[in-house]
Design the sequence.
């Protein structure tokens, strides 16, 4: 039954969902409740929208339209009236309930769910129920492959003429793990194709895309990416600008606030994005440790086996390495600080040896995977490329191709103008570096939004320190954010000295 209501424009966005507000009394009369769905018709157009009810935002015989609904109906001014019609819940709601009841889903059923995800037909509650059901009950092989393929189909895909297209992914949680920005120029220098799409920070002080953006634009179109690859063999761009594996971005919005990484969904998410950029050979870096996403070695080994198995089923050559994630990789945390650190390594400075060695090791494995180096010789080949300056030259080519300044150097990177250096008030040995707390402090200082904000570390786990020695420096763009970071130091436990928490006995020196 269609009902006529007077539209009222609401000057707000709902975050991507089509939402309408119906007066509480009207909702009773036409038998709709919050989160029910209705067709909204106007000007010969029709959209599906979720209902919210209110006694204040919409008067009786009135319907409030959020900006998304206004746009889809092509409304530039409020018409005299429009019609709504209550509709049944989409089939995928019942399929989600089926998954909650521990019943495996078939490929067409997962296809139906992803189709509704892409059409914004599911409420946040229903989408959360799906992620939670997968987290609790898992996915079998058929479900995992179906979800992977549907995520690939949900967005655009890239295709390159080369038989070998390399890629890598790091299972996150470790600050400063910027190996992508070392291995991409190494691999590209060797004449191999590596179209690297990277993420922005969600809960960390910097994502690879945030760090690369200090040096060059990362919001590239498909044509710009292909042009960059044709010129340089490589790129480092933000995946979100490409609409690749689009359904995954919608699922991530639910997963991250809940800190949920369901096993099957994690596999599908990563492999779908690699397949979507045309990857044929993929290296997965699985870090383990207290601050990383994976805590135990046995869990990492199981995950590695699954990546390799599912990669083969998707016609991709996948290899995995398991690396320590107990401490930050490198010394810098924050976009500009990390960009400066990468350039310093490429320029030949003796800084952050752990980050350099990890980047070389990973690049070496990828050269061997692609047949560009013999087994056991990849690392030496990668090292010669970086030590010769070829990787720096290639990085500058990529920066230029992406629209950045190829004359950039580490000395030209601007970092936060406000700083505070934390010094030890007693001697001892560094027992533990709490990556999560260090990330929290860096974010309080303004990272990643303030690109110059973050932390620079002078020590690492196992180091002997003396009284008065520098432990780390916090950088910020304003006094207020520096103060916010300072206030966290004594509350958190960023560094432990043997069995004593240094955080309680720091001396602080501002500049």
Sequence:
């Amino acid at each position: 039954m269609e009902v006529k209501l007077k539209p009222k424009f609401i000057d707000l966005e709902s975050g991507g969902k089509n939402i309408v507000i119906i007066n509480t009394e009207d909702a009773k009369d036409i038998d709709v409740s919050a989160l029910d769905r209705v067709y909204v018709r106007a000007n010969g157009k029709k959209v599906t929208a979720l209902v919210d009810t209110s006694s204040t935002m919409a008067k009786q015989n009135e319907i409030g339209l959020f900006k998304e609904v206004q746009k889809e109906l092509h409304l530039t001014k409020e018409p005299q009236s429009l019609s709504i019609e209550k509709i049944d819940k989409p089939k995928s709601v019942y399929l989600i309930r089926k998954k909650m009841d521990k019943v495996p889903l078939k490929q067409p059923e997962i296809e139906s769910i992803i189709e509704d995800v892409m059409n914004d037909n599911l409420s946040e509650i229903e989408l959360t129920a799906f992620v939670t059901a997968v987290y609790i009950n898992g996915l079998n092989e058929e479900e995992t492959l179906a979800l992977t393929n549907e995520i690939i189909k949900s967005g655009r895909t890239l295709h390159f003429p080369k038989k070998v297209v390399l890629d890598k992914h790091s299972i996150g949680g470790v600050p400063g793990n910027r190996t992508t920005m070392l291995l991409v120029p190494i691999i590209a220098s060797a004449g191999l194709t590596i179209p690297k799409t990277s993420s922005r920070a969600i809960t960390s002080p910097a994502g690879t895309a945030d760090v690369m953006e200090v040096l060059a634009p990362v919001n590239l179109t498909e044509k710009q990416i292909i042009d960059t690859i044709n010129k340089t063999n490589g790129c480092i761009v933000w995946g979100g600008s490409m609409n690749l594996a689009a359904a995954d971005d919608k699922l991530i919005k639910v997963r991250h606030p809940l800190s949920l990484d369901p096993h099957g969904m994690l596999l599908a998410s990563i492999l779908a994005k690699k397949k979507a950029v045309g990857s044929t050979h993929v290296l997965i870096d699985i870090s383990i440790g207290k601050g990383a996403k994976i805590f135990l070695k046995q869990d990492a080994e199981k995950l590695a086996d699954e990546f390799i198995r599912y990669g083969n089923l998707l016609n991709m050559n996948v290899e995995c390495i398991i690396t320590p994630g107990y401490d930050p990789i490198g010394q810098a945390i924050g976009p500009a600080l990390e960009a400066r650190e990468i350039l310093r390594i490429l320029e030949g400075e003796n800084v952050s040896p752990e980050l350099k060695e990890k980047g070389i090791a990973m690049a070496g494995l990828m050269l061997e995977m692609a047949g560009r180096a013999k087994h056991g010789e990849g690392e030496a080949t990668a090292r010669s490329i970086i030590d010769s300056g070829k990787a720096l030259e290639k990085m500058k080519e990529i920066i230029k191709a992406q629209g950045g300044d190829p004359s950039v150097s580490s000395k030209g990177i601007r970092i936060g103008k406000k700083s505070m250096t934390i010094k030890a008030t007693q001697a001892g040995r560094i027992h533990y570096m709490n990556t999560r707390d260090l990330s929290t402090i860096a974010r309080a200082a303004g990272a990643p939004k303030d690109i110059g904000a973050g932390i620079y570390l002078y020590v690492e786990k196992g180091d002997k320190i003396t009284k008065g020695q520098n432990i780390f420096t916090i950088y910020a763009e304003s006094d207020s954010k520096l103060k916010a970071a300072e206030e966290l130091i004594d509350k958190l436990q960023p560094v432990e000295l043997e069995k004593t928490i240094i955080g309680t006995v720091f001396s602080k020196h501002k500049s």
Observations:
- Residues 297-313 form the longest helix (17 residues).
- The chain has four domains: 2-87, 91-137, 166-244+261-401, 418-510.
- Residues 307 and 439 are 28 Å apart (CA to CA).
- The mean pLDDT is 90.
